[in-house]
Amino acid sequence: MTDIDTLFNKFDKQELLEQTASESATVKKSKTTQPPEKYAKSMLFVRGVPKDATNTELEEFFSNVGPVRSCFVVGEKKPEESEDTAKDKKTSSANRGFGFVQFVLAEDAARAIEELSDTKFRDQKRLLLDFAMKKGMREESDKKPVKRPRKEPTKKDAEEPASKKPKVPTGAKVESRTIIIIGLPVGVTKKHLVKRVKKVGNPHSIVYPLPSKDSTEEQLKDGAGGAANVTFGDHKTAMLAVKALDDHIFKGAKLTVKLKSEYVNKNARLIVRNLPFKIRERDLENLL
Fold first, then answer.
1. Could you report the per-residue pLDDT of 63-78, keeping only the tens digit for each?
2. Rounded distance between C-alpha atoms, residue 151 and residue 117, angstroms
């Protein structure tokens, strides 16, 4: 039994346990198309890997989509090396141009094919991504793994020039917890602002004065006036703050308050591993 076969046996057993657990619970159906039964649901076969690429580089590339359980490139064996000698080596100077990546969640494996097929590895070349064929099926069939077809442009996209398409923020829009306060007079300190917004609800964080590209040191000092961002614990409290403070006269000045539009950018996610069990959300936010 080769080194790759041993790894596939381990992956097949793990996937069988996950599949049994998922069938016993009520889980929402994923919108992403799952591979046929002869292909592993959480493991990908990656081709086109540069010869000098390492396991760490490949794992960092795929970790942008979701947590990775295992990731490795298949190394080259030198002619003078025996099979036993090759197994003992943890790293190799060159690889055979392909590897395998197993995600913790099957949904992340499917999303990786959709999102990373057009993304350049090392900003140089695109990798060829397919669902990996299960060990038993590899021996019975010589067919290539199923490739997900690329989305073709619609007629509407072809007719409309790219320059006329409106630019929209990337990511999904979410219910904002942050408000923007404009028109704060000079002399209003952060302490004054905290005292005022607390009448609506406890603020989670306050950025004041709000910096801009042309801000000077004097304009960034506490009490310089201008604008501020105030973030609350939930969307409902933020909406109440807008109603209470918009057009409100504060320290002799009329305030303009509105809800800040917020988007979740899928390319800006941060995965933090090995967290203590007792850590709270606020502890993590303070850490970052």
1. 988 899 999 998 865 5
2. 11
